[in-house]
Specification:
The protein is mostly helical. The chain is built from 8 helices and no strands. The longest helix has 43 residues.
Amino acid sequence: MSLCQEEKVVSLPSRKKLRRRQLVEKLFGRHARALYVFLRGRSVPEEQINDITQEVFAHLMVVNGLEEKMSDSLGSNRSYLLTMANNMLANRHRKSRVRRAYSAAQLAVERERRDEHSPERIVEAQLELEAIKAVILGMRPHWRAAFVLHRFHNLNYGEIAVYMGLTKKQVEHYILRALRKLRQARRTIQNSGEHWC
């Protein structure tokens, strides 16, 4: 292969890039102002308009088949660019919303962590624990025994039934009654303005 043929082979992709660049510059020259007006109409801040405009035209450099998509019709090219800008704007809003939600969640977790060990929270937790303890101690003996064995000793219904000399159905019934009693106490505490963990 001669040097001249090698230059043609090597320069083929760069010619394609050059044509693409010329097309994008031509589109920029014709439609940048319309894109600016479109984005201003959508209440996009000035500093973001330039970013989005650059992003649109940078994206055009890598769009497959751009030459076929761009016609000689000024209106369809403009519509294509405005649609692209609108999609980029929607993506920015979506990403921004996700970032804000994530930041808010992080702040809430951090605030909760800080509040978790505050003196007020410690006292509140102790009061809640005392309230729960009082409710458990106030339950009927069979309910309390079944509940304590299940929740604090991690026994299943069958093991509790054998231990207490009951049927599994009776154990289930006692635990449900105990849970119902705790839920009632929880509602009472919440209605009285106290907190419940």
